Amino acid sequence: MSPPVVLTIAGSDSGGGAGIQADLKTIEAGGAFGTSAITSVTAQNTQGVRGSHLLPIEDIEAQIDAVLEDFDVAAVKTGMLATADVIETVVDYADRLPNLVVDPVMVAASGDRLLEPDAEEVYEELIAESTLVTPNADEAAVLTGINPKNEGEAREVGEQLVELGSDAALVKGGHIPIPEVTDVLVTADDVTTIRHPRVETNATHGSGCTLSSAVATRLAHGDDLTAAVESGVDLLSRAIRYNLDVGGGPGAVHHTVEARDRAARERTAETVEGIVAALIDRDVTSVVDSAGLDVVGATPYAEHEHEVAAVEGRVARTLSGLRPNRGVRFGASGRTAELLLNAREERPDLSFACRCRNGSRIETALDELGWETVVLERNGGPGRVEERLGPETVALLDHRTDSTIVLAERAPALRERVVTLAETIE
């Protein structure tokens, strides 16, 4: 294998959530080979920065030289540079640093300052050499004098940074006080706005490092800038949603979330096949209508229908019993996958669902079993699924498709619930 090489020039985080550690985790998870030049060694964790030691300039230069002499570096990202001297050192190497992504780290998520005040102006020189600069709202205010409060002001920040010489600026929307997180990518020719739901969590340690590393990794793979940025934003959104509850502070983002999700696809598909085989063996024909049985399973960090496995064409009733029409494929389910993903917004532990028939016998059986249900009316009803789902909800009565959707956290639980429902109505 010959993966593309990405170089990160940044500080070390002893807590592992940000800095060099976050960069290398993200780069490797993205299919590239991570190399590094450490600028500072910090003593920090999820609760704050306890101390910082700046490496001598000659040691930083030696690390960069060692990497550039031996590796065909395809992209570079910078993080914590700390002082004007370090920034100027990186500027001196700029013509040898392809696809340079500059994350202008100034303050840690905990509020601790990571950049000396006299180094702020020097950043303009590095920005002028960059392929992309990725400030958050606080950093944007330092770099341009504009503290963006809305999409229009974020665009103004991006335009100013491009005027400084950067090929592009991604003004991150995490700190901009609007309902949806709105990231604004500005180039000399275009403006792209990327929106995604805001995740209510303080576990954002390492978010900036992870995003810039993800973008640099995609650039190293040959993606164009817009595609690389969109991919990086998607990864960060998921990394924050499925954050890691580590340490005594808010926690850290999940740097390897997409790689772990991809790794779980085969296991998820095999599990769905196992559920289908068990339901056929137990003969749950009584809960199957002409539309068929739809058994679906989501990967651990699924957010899209193409990350939900299902039997293509569903499981159908035939004269000789239940038979799957085709094999298990990701993206093969529509409504059932959609409802499972919506339910996971409130209950991310839910991983499996089965679409059964609806009707008075089913509803009577659900009452007899004492299962908590949510009714989804044909016109959408009062509130979205995720807003009405309770911690004990077992089934959705979907009147829009005349279906009953049985939910479960684990495959055995789904199998037994569907079998129990079938036996109750027989």
What's the number of extended β-strand segments? Answer: 18
Radius of gyration: 25 Å
List segments where confidence is low: pLDDT < 50 over at least 5 consecutive residues. Answer: none
Beta fraction: 15-25%
Estimated structural class: alpha/beta
| Superfamily (CATH H level) name of the largest domain | Ribokinase
Trace the largest sheet across and list its strands.
14-11-10-15-18-17-16
CATH-level-2 architecture of the largest domain:
3-Layer(aba) Sandwich
* Biggest beta sheet attributes: 7 strands, mixed
Keywords: ATP-binding, Kinase, Nucleotide-binding, Transferase
Domain Pyridoxamine kinase/Phosphomethylpyrimidine kinase: 13-254
InterPro entries: Aldolase_II/adducin_N_sf (IPR036409), HMP/HMP-P_kinase_dom (IPR004399), PM/HMP-P_kinase-1 (IPR013749), Ribokinase-like (IPR029056), ThiN (IPR019293)
Domain Thiamine-phosphate synthase ThiN: 275-387
